[in-house]
Structures are given as structure tokens and as C-alpha cells.
Amino acid sequence: MNAFLQACRAAIGAAHVLTEPADTAGYLTDQRGRYTGRAVAVLRPADTAETAAIVRLCAQYRVPVVPQGGNTGLVLGSVPDQGGTAAVLSLRRLNRIRAVDPVNNTMTVEAGCVLQTVQQEAAAAARLFPLSLAAEGSCTIGGNLSTNAGGTGVLRYGNTRELCLGLEVVTAQGEVMSSLKGLRKDNTGYDLRDLFIGAEGTLGVITAAVLKLFPQPRAQVTALAALKTPAQALRLLNLAQSRCGPALTGFELMSDFCLQLVAKHFTDQRPPFAQRHAQYVLLELSDSESEEHARGIFEDVIGNALEQGIIDDAVIASSIAQSKSLWQLRENISMAQAHEGKNIKHDISVPISRIAEFIEVTDKLVQQASPACRMVTFGHLGDGNLHYNVSPPEGVADTEFIRQQHAINLVVHDSVDRFGGSISAEHGLGALKREEITRYKSPVELALMRTIKQALDPHNLMNPGKVI
Predict the structure, then answer these.
(1) Is the terminal CB of the chain with fewer CB neighbours within 10 Å at N or C?
(2) Given the DSSP bridges, would you call strands 41-43 and 87-90 parallel, antiparallel or unpaired?
(3) What is the top-level taxon of the source organism (predicted)?
(4) Does pLDDT of 119 surpass 90?
């Protein structure tokens, strides 16, 4: 192993081959602080050429590679196991914006670029990069692509896969596949780009990408609606889509308990209503004409929803500050949960038309498995993705509750499967769901995945123990 480390130091500089515990600690523990792996070293190349050189050395010395971006994942996909034989390949130094082409509506960026930086660079060119999620201040584009991240804009713009036109990838052999043309039409064989997106670093290392940009909307207007049930939320979604069309860019469902947690742990943040309601929906409209036009559309939607008895109350943000305040209610749910204590998380998707039924049926099943547990249900209702989380009952130690995790996961995921859904909507599989997915994917699908893995990574060095 000393020979491997010496070769790495020669390739990228000794300062970027980290082996001391004090230097590597932040790279080895997952975002939720529940798991810490071990690594032979953390390697920090500066560019694609250095990344390729490191991967070639890993192939030569048979050292497993764990690619890592911002390390914000929730399924143990970006941290090594406890064997101590793998090297963490940190891509944070690959953080250059290579090109912005406003006419082609594209931006070429390196994998270590922080998502928020990409958003800001797009805005500086009077363009929009619409991927938006709670971790955008620390997650990286490489990680977003590797997990096919979703976020709050999927309803209008799609997942990260839909926002990418080309990739640069270092293969398991240390070769560089460069496809950064920025073309929207290119039917010249297999779509290799989509093979690496969502693969969580198990097939190769994404080092750069061409991303789609969009014209900046002239106005964004936010509204918060209060209602009784998820079924009414679906009726509101149908109404809003019929009136707003593609201008509807956000539609987020939140239960009352979610916002009670936010109010408890962020005392300055409360729903702007005189009384509590069972459910809330946060809507966002992005308009290409004017704020007045957007507000008029929203007033029409809200007025009709009130007349039809779909919603009980609503507020349309009257300023940017109020809009941010409404979004903070949604974005701080996960942090409020963390402050409340340990919980059992599920990132699931079901057909949009069946969400209300899924919640009703599965809530009862979970309560049977763990009486008095507290449901923290929220998410991207417009694209069928729920964060269906379970907190312990009042007075039950979270460490004791976490022992029920496997049983509760089984209840939830079996229900997801019966409703024709997926046990991972946007977080990926990582190591956390690697074994569980075999319960829900067909043998044919699993065999095809293993065939691809074997073909591209025959020595199983790329993020081993993840996905498949």
C-alpha cells in the first residue's frame, strides 16, 4: 500500500493525499452522522487528467474507489465501508465553470461545482438552472448527476438526468470518455450519458457535464394553501395544472405535524394562518410575462379552489421576503426532524393518482407496526415523490425506536410496491438499500444491471458494495 500512496503523491501532490485521521474524518462519515467508514487515503485530484491518473493507479494496485462530491447523500453511497482498503476520491477541487453559452442555453461545469454556484453563474448570464434542493449550498453537480437528484423543480423541469446534455467520465480503467458537445439531438448509438447518470459512481467517475439552462422567468410567485386531506391536494394539483400549465413549477405537500416541528425548532417560522390545518400545499408559479400576470393566474386558481371547497384558506406571497419565508417552512422540515431526534426516513414514489390512497393505507399499517409513532409526511406531490418519514412516539427514546427500522421499512416498502411505486425516488440506493432492492426488482432487471457492472468494471473497484 505504501507504493500505491507514493504513486498517488507523485500524481497529484503529497498535500492532496490525505491519510491522517484529523484530515480524513470529514470524508468518512455520512451526512446524518450515523455511519463512519475507513479508507486507505482521501485523494483530491485537481482536474480530469489527475482524476484519470488516480483511477489508473487504483486499477493497477486493485484499490477500490469511492467517488465523493459534497457528501450530502442519505443512503451511504459516498462513504467507504469499514474494511479500510478503499480510497475516497474527492472531486471538490474540480470546481471550474468551463463555459457558459446563453445562446445554446448550456453551461459546462466540473463535477465539484457546488449546485448553488451553478445557479448563481446561470443567473449572472440571465439564465436559470432549475435544479433546487435543500442541500444546494453544499452538494455538488457530480453528486447530483450520480444520484439523478430531484428537488422541488421536477414538476416542470425534470430530474437531473433531464437537465444534462453531455458528460465527461473517467472509466474504471482510467480512460476519459468526453461527450461535452451540448447537443439536444444526437442519435449515434447507445446513450452512454444516461448509463452513468444515477449509477452512483459504480460504473465510472463523472468529472464534467453540459447542463441545460432556461430563460430566467420574469416573475416567480408563491402561495401557501391550507386544506384537509391529500385527496384535496390532488384536486388542487389538477386545477392548478389546468389553469397554469407548464408555468406551475412547484407543488409541495406538507402535513400539519411537519410544520409543527418547524415551528418548534425554528420559533420564528410559522404558517401564516389563524388556525391549524391538517395539510398544506406550497405552490410556485414561474411566469414569462410579469408578476401582475402571475399573481392574476394564482388569484384565479385560489379563488376557484375556495369556491369548490378544495381548500380552506390560502395566502399569496406579497414580497420576495414573504415568498422566502413560505419556502423556509418547507425547506426546514428535514432539519427540524433532525433536531427532534432520530427518525426512520423513506424516499419513495408512487403514481400521483394513488398518493392519497397510499398515505391513508400505509399510515394505518405503520401505526399497527409501531403504535403512536408520528408520521412526518411531505414532499414533491407534483411528481409523485414523498418523504414518508416516521418519528418515535412521545416519550420513546429514539435509539430504542431505531431498532424497529427494518420492520417499519418492510411495511412501508412493501406498501410502495403494492401501489406500483419505487423505494428510492431521488436519493439512490447506495449501501443502505442495496440488499433491499432485490426484493422489488425482477431477476431480469438485476441480471442486466450486473451484466453492465461486470462489463464496465470487471474488477469491481468502482464504489463497491453500492447499488448492486
Answers:
(1) N
(2) parallel
(3) Bacteria
(4) yes
Q: Provide the residue range defining the domain that includes 251.
A: 219-334
Quote the CA–CA distance of 61 and 53 in Å, as a whole number: 12
Task: Quote the CA–CA distance of 52 and 207 in Å, as a whole number.
Answer: 10
Q: What is the predicted pLDDT for the residue at 144?
A: 97
Q: Say if residue 210 is in the same domain as residue 118.
A: yes
Alpha-carbon gap, residue 180 to 182, rounded angstroms: 6
Residues 268 and 226 in one domain: yes
Q: What is the pLDDT of residue 134?
A: 86
Give the closest residue to 156 by CA, choosing from 296, 283, 305, 302. Answer: 283
- What does the pLDDT average to over 430-459? 96
Instruction: Report how far residue 93's alpha carbon sits from residue 142's, in angstroms, rounded to the nearest whole number.
Output: 12
In a domain, 406, yes or no: yes
Q: Are residues 359 and 416 in the same domain?
A: yes
Q: 261 is written with which cell numbers?
A: 416541528
Query: Which sign does the torsion angle of CA 224, 372, 338, 35 carry?
Result: negative
Distance separating alpha carbons of residues 346 and 421, to the nearest angstrom: 12
Residue spans of beta strands (DSSP E) within 145-291: 164-171, 176-179, 204-212, 214-215, 219-227, 248-255, 279-287
Residue 195: pLDDT above 90? yes
The total number of residues shown for the chain amounts to 468
pTM over 0.90: yes
CB 234 within 8 A of CB 253: no
What is the DSSP code (8-state) at residue 185? -
Average pLDDT of every residue of the chain: 96
Q: Are 303 and 313 spatial neighbours (Cβ–Cβ below 8 Å)? A: no
Considering the domain architecture, whether residues 184 and 281 belong to the same structural domain is answered as: no
- Is residue 13 located within the same domain as residue 70? yes
